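Severity: low
Component: inverse-folding endpoint
Summary: output formatting inconsistent between runs
Steps to reproduce: submit the following structure tokens with default settings.
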């Protein structure tokens, strides 16, 4: 198995890094403090192909590989994890769901403007009473009594990335309550459709520049040709979307940890205590060494999952392993980053405290660490 980055991938990394340093880094603190979703950044991300990373060129995408995708997300997260989260949710959840299960007409109409970055994508699975237990959702879609070719959606979604700023929503809803997980379907809903509206904007611990809100659905009439995938297949398809999406969150965690590691390394070489730089103390050196090893391990687990996905394999096990490990080491690296900064790790003049706040999302979003362990154990037991 060879998934070492190529020369083109090294160039891609340099390009995205330079972009993040010049276009994102100067604004990170302000966007975080004001919870500002930088819509003004979208055309610039689009110009680099970052809003249609893996989609075919005929749908406006950049036709990059799964490994390229990881590199892009990593480099964005190294500078601002909140921007990486938005890019990952747009590409890896909304647009990816349409690319995987949409009809030709749906891909032309909805995927193309998403991949070109003309529209922002959102994906609504989670509800206020069902997150890990996603199949317990309450949002319902029923056929209109008068027009069989129209679905009427009622309910609400919680914690939707781009819930307020999204243009194209993929919404999961129950179409046959008695059928359990086989009774959930996915729908494409456009902003401006009567009956869909943003609810409460969340005031978050971290990832504050990434828009997160409720989405309300009140007698929202959706044309039959916006049913995404087969009726009743929405939940099964969602699990496949998440297999790929989790590789993106793993890459985000790797990039975030890399950013935190670089910050702590820099600080350790600058800060003096007892007449020496703190990098000369073994206690600090061990933290640096552990961080470097952890990041490298997480990076290769993530690249392995991406490589296998690129080969067309089903990666439920590998994606969950990468997501679990990368997010948990990232929490540890971000924690040590604050510790190495001492009191300066606790204030906003240094990047440590933001990494510490942002990182927690990686063990929660797209399935918590507990759910990843459950998925991994199920996979292992069913294979043995
Ligand atoms: C910033 C942000 C962005 C998000 N973006 C999106 C988005 O775009 N679209 C979307 O649909 N969702 C999104 N989410 C929702 C996210 O996926 C859920 O928060 C996550 O899946 C957990 O669900 P929950 O919050 O309901 O927690 P719960 O499911 O209530 O879990 C609470 C705790 O119980 C544990 N637990 C639950 N069940 C089990 C079990 N069977 N075994 C062991 N432990 C268990 C969990 O691990 C957790 O520790 C986002 C969340 C955040 C915070």
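Observed output (run 2 of 3):
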């Amino acid at each position: 198995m060879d998934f070492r980055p190529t020369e083109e991938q090294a160039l891609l990394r340099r390009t995205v890094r330079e972009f993040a340093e010049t276009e994102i880094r100067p604004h990170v603190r302000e966007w975080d403090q004001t919870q500002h979703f930088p819509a003004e950044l979208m055309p610039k991300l689009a110009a680099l192909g970052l809003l249609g990373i893996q989609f075919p060129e005929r749908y406006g995408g950049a036709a990059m590989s799964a490994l390229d995708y990881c590199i892009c997300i990593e480099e964005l997260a190294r500078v601002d994890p909140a921007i990486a989260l938005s890019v990952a949710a747009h590409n890896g959840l909304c647009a990816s769901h349409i690319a995987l299960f949409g009809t030709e007409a749906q891909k032309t109409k909805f995927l193309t403007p998403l991949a070109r970055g003309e529209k922002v994508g959102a994906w609504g699975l989670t509800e206020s009473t069902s997150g890990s237990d996603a199949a317990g959702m309450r949002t319902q879609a029923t056929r209109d009594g008068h027009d069989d070719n129209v679905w009427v959606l009622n309910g609400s979604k919680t914690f939707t990335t781009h819930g307020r700023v999204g243009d194209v929503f993929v919404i999961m809803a129950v179409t046959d309550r008695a059928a359990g997980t086989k009774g959930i379907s996915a729908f494409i809903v456009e902003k401006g459709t009567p009956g869909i509206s943003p609810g409460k904007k969340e005031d978050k611990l971290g990832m504050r520049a990434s828009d997160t809100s409720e989405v309300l659905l009140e007698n929202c009439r959706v044309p039959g040709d916006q049913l995404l995938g087969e009726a009743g297949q929405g939940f099964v398809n969602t699990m496949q979307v998440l297999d790929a999406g989790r590789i993106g969150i793993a890459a985000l965690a790797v990039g975030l940890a890399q950013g935190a590691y670089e910050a702590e390394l820099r600080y350790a070489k600058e800060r003096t205590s007892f007449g020496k730089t703190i990098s000369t103390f073994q206690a600090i050196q061990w933290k640096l060494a552990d961080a470097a090893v952890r990041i490298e391990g997480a990076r290769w687990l993530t690249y392995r999952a991406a490589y296998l996905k690129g080969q067309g394999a089903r990666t439920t096990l590998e994606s969950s392993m990468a997501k679990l490990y990368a997010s948990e080491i990232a929490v540890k690296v971000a924690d040590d980053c604050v510790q190495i900064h001492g009191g300066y790790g606790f204030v906003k003049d240094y990047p440590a405290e933001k990494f510490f706040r942002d990182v927690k999302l990686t063990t929660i979003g797209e399935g918590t660490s507990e759910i990843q362990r459950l998925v991994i154990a199920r996979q292992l037991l069913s294979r043995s």
